[in-house]
Design brief:
By secondary structure, this protein is of the alpha/beta class. The chain has a single domain (2-231), classed as P-loop containing nucleotide triphosphate hydrolases (Rossmann fold, 3-Layer(aba) Sandwich). The protein is 38% helix and 26% strand. The chain has helices at 40-47, 70-75, 93-100, 107-120, 122-125, 137-149, 167-182, 194-200, 218-222, 225-231; strands spanning 2-11, 14-24, 29-33, 55-60, 63-64, 78-81, 155-159, 186-190, 203-208, 211-216. The strands form 2 sheets. The chain has a 6-stranded mixed sheet with strand order 6-7-8-3-9-10, with helices on both faces. It is globular. It starts with a strand and ends with a helix.
Amino acid sequence: MLAIRDLHVHYGGIHALRGINIDVPDGKIISLIGANGAGKSTTLKAIMGLVSKSEGHVYWDNTDISAMKTKDIVGGGITLCPEGRKIFPDLTVEENLAAGAYLRKDKEAVAADRKKAYELFPRLSERTWQLGATLSGGEQQMLAVARSLMSGPKLLMLDEPSLGLAPLVIKDIFAVIRKIREEGVNVLLIEQNAKAALEISDYAYVLESGVITMAGSGKALLNDPRVQKAYLGE
């Protein structure tokens, strides 16, 4: 389980996160929704050690990982699939997946996870030789998620996986997120498509200007008039 306690992050004079508390229990999909600039991506980067924390702690399975290096956090079972895909455009699909497993030494387990990734995303299995840059936007997002899974995570953090994708592709991506959870990987999801995120979430938090302003089950927040007005266009 991941636990964030009283987390503060400053960028220069900007107080980006203001003492947030978030729990990601085992076997759950947890979403963090909010407008652009609310601090969602900063939260994931702080967990991964990619930005400095001013105050507060991040705990992973009761171990304080607040001061750990990013590669050690990945090695400990947490992986971030970043906003904007960030695949390696000049590497093939197969090479991108291999890059996702670069910290692992267990060749048989890596091979099994590669097979699993291709089962999750059959389209990628037809394009193993293709360069990342030549894939469609939807296929690049599939590759980004598959590459993240190649590290063998216990917690997969997804930053805006539906950004810029067609509705049918978004539906496929969210179906895969459900499957990932069913296979025992916990999920922390950041998503501007609040409706899609809340529909698959066991629990969710609303982040506004670096502060958690609401929290509850995905269903409860879907039906909350404040959430509907601010994020669902209702």
